[in-house]
Amino acid sequence: MFKLSLPITLNELPNRTPYLDLVVPDGRNNPCRCFWTQLQSGKIALTRGWEEFYQMYKINLDSMLYFTHKGNSNF
Question: Which residues of the chain have pLDDT under 70?
Answer without folding.
Answer: 1-4, 14, 27-29
